[in-house]
Amino acid sequence: MLSQRRFLIIIVAKFLLKIDDALDLFAEHAVGGIIGLLFNGLFASRTIIALDGVNTSINGGWVDHNWKQLYIQFAYVCATCAYTFAVTAIIAKAVDLIPGLHLKTTPEGESLGLDEVEVSRLTIL
Q1: Angle at CA 26, nearest 5°, toward 94 and 82?
Q2: Which of 44, 34, 33 is nearest to 66 (CA)?
Q3: Residue 99 placed within a domain
Q4: Global pTM?
Q5: pLDDT category of residue 12 using cuts at 50, 70 and 90
Q6: How many domains would you assign to the chain?
Q7: For residue 73, is it within any domain?
Q8: Cβ atoms within 10 Å, residue 62
Q9: Distance between CA atoms of 74 and 85, rounded to whole angstroms?
Q10: 31 and 77 in contact (C-beta within 8 Å)?
Q11: Would you tell me which of 10, 33, 97, 121 could form a disulfide with 27, CB atoms 3.0–4.6 Å apart?
Q12: How confident is the model over 51-81, as pLDDT tens digits?
């Protein structure tokens, strides 16, 4: 239920902010990863972590009164988002500088459809 609500909220936000994310990659992977990392800081339990017999000295999260784990997880989220943004911006700029390649089609191409513009044919549904 939480997953469906998260997805709906992100879809509405994407529409209101006019973000062009055709495959909903941000909604699925980024937001899902952020929520997952933060929930690890909240709900991690040392008894579950120690079931593998290897990681027996990990303190767990808020469930085990390890209050600082949530702050560590938040720092991981911030570092990962910053790294991902920087590397993606560099790759996108590099692709945009290559002659003949562009990150986005023209407004005319969007209205006609990419099959008509790029492949010169209409697809049959």
Answers
A1: 60
A2: 44
A3: yes
A4: 0.70
A5: confident
A6: 1
A7: yes
A8: 15
A9: 16
A10: no
A11: 10
A12: 888 888 888 889 899 999 999 999 999 999 9
